[in-house]
Amino acid sequence: DSGVTQTPKHLITATGQRVTLRCSPRSGDLSVYWYQQSLDQGLQFLIQYYNGEERAKGNILERFSAQQFPDLHSELNLSSLELGDSALYFCASSVVGGLAGGGSYNEQFFGPGTRLTVL
Amino acid sequence: TQLLEQSPQFLSIQEGENLTVYCNSSSVFSSLQWYRQEPGEGPVLLVTVVTGGEVKKLKRLTFQFGDARKDSSLHITAAQPGDTGLYLCWWGGATNKLIFGTGTLLAVQP
Question: Measured by CB atoms within 10 angstroms of the end CB, which terminus of chain A is less buried, N or C?
């Protein structure tokens, strides 16, 4: 158990609909990352929030949005859903540290994922 | 764009065999992580390597970071069916460039 929680576990919906995925990071972690994983695309970084603010954006569609709340949980909103949005969606929180001599490391702890099926 | 190329892409072996998975880049990284992902579950962190030439062992898994910090390898000794999964190398430094390797899908047949 990574300590990262995600709900719901499964979500089935129709094209054109809107859904919200929820994530709570590990206790004490300020960052939340969202990833999409489909069979043909691998693990794709979507967006990162740090202490309530957007920190980095990856391959996130304009139909998707996210936010992080004061209690640090995050929600990923997917709208105007298309068949191609069917995928596993993971969130992660991280431990970031500096290294002697410069550089850094970023260890990600992933939640169990939400499997979204768009019919 | 920085990329982490993994090889092989797929590997199917018999229980008891040894194998090595490679993660290569043309860029220098301050650290690399290795993850294993089982079907339908989130990736799980296995190890972080930070020093060129570093070798870390996790039971039957041996991780090595190249001297120039451009590559890394994962060696599994006497593979077991429980080792089956997707192995990913990953770099995510503070510059927020989050880079996952292309992945190696390992199947260990009993």
Answer: N
